[in-house]
Amino acid sequence: MIIEVTPDIYNDKRFGINHASISKNALNIISKLHKSGFEAYIVGGGIRDMIKGLKPKDFDIVTNCEPEKIRKIFRNSRIIGRRFKLVHIAFADEIIEATTFRSGGTNTTESIEINEKGRIVRDNNWGTQEEDVWRRDLTINSIYYDPFSHEIIDYTRGIKDLKDKKIKFIGNTGERILEDPVRILRALRFAAKLNFTIDQEIAESIKEHKNQLLEMPTARLYEEVVKMFMTGHAEQSFIQLKAYGVFDILFPHFKDEDGIFDKFYVEAFRETDERFKLNKKLNVGFIFAVLLWPKVFLDSGISIHINFKRFYRSIAEVVRRQQMITSIPKKFSSFIKDVWMNQVRFNRVGKKSINFTKNLRFRAAYDFLLLRNINEQNLEASIKWWTEFKTANYDKKIRLLNTNKKKNARKQNS
To answer: 36: helix, coil or strand?
Structure first.
């Protein structure tokens, strides 16, 4: 039985929505589903961003067509997921995600598979739009749009929350977080992305349930961290995570209660956001190298007299312990270790320094050196030298090395 809620229905003209801003692939999918006798809507970020006057980056579609039938209609598609089945429809320039209406939620008496801790372990019970809306988490992401009838359908007053710049869960906040604690990160991520305020009920529930994030699959937490720090709002994501005590849950190996490394983090994430805006390449490994660096630095430090074995053991242990919380793919864990190990090479200037500048990961290591200058003293001279050295031609590199060698010799003799 469904508790009836009359949705607010708007014409898209009210929000100035132009079909030209909608993916042609998404429109074609919806049209084809309609012609096959099914309902289909744009849902989530696509319609949310259009209502806000922003250009959507992706379009998710929801329909009453079941995954297996979607697969038959679209040959360029595949079904993914077991816990939540959905369909990816692939095109040359994008992948459109299509899901099926689900039943069993806050406003229904239908059942879904929930474990003893109240978590959803399976949610593949198909339903109607009226049921599906209560399976969604945030009000601002539960708005449906049919671009052909021009109707925007809002069951949860999500448009009002968009106007008020509020992040709210649908239904009982505590229950929604218990169903899936990763929703804590989703709420904080959207608050960071949209510059919205977290609802007080969510704030209280985060405080109560944040430790349950540690019981989540490491792969899911890794995916959320990537979304938070690699999509243009890394600085604000860091601020949100710190404000609600979640940063220390995800990265517990160094508790910076005094915020000693906050400037280091903020500058790194500010630069990351700038690179994103400029469509420059971002590396997940570099983000994790930043996130985990304070522990490595405080355990080992960086100097010309560093104990390499101790330093490497510290690096390996920090990465290993983090992988127990957020998985880190091997190619990125290797990148992290290389960036950190290469910091030592900046203190050991010699003939090998020329080849070092040709190393594929020199640029990342150099950028990391610049960030270290925020928290570490006496790096200015080294940064100045390496900045000149890396862009010099071979002859000038040799002169710089000889000058540095003589300078060190004078220091030893004085």
So the answer is: coil
Round to whole Å and give the CA distance between 341 and 296: 11
Chain segment 71-81, per-residue pLDDT in tens: 999 999 999 98
Question: Do residues 59 and 42 lie in contact, with contact meaning Cβ atoms separated by under 8 Å?
Answer: yes
Determine the Cα–Cα distance for residues 404 and 348; give it in Å rounded to an integer. Answer: 11
Asked whether 373 and 379 are in contact (CB, 8 A), the reply is: yes
pTM above 0.90, yes or no: no
pLDDT (tens digit per residue) in 290-323? 999 998 888 776 655 677 788 888 899 999 999 9
Alpha-carbon gap, residue 272 to 270, rounded angstroms: 5
Active site residues: 58, 60, 137
Degrees to nearest 5, angle at CA 39 with 34 and 45: 110
Cα–Cα dist 316/318, whole Å: 6
Nearest to 59 by CA among 174, 121, 147, 151: 147
- Spatial neighbors of 98 by CB under 8 A, at least 6 apart, are 29, 60, 61, 62, 63, 65, 70, 77, 86, 87, 88, 89
Going from the C-alpha of 387 to that of each of 268, 367, 380, the distances in angstroms are: 19, 10, 10
Which letter does DSSP use for residue 180 in this model? -
Domains, the chain: 1-174 (3.30.460.10)
Cα distances from 153 to residues 8, 114, 163, 187, 303, in angstroms, run 6, 29, 16, 22, 61
Of 8, 76, 1, 70, the closest CA to residue 38 belongs to: 70
Among left, alpha and beta (phi > 0; psi -120 to 50; other), residue 98 is: beta
Amino acid at 322: Q
Separation in Å, CA 109 to CA 5, 104, 115, 116: 15, 7, 17, 18
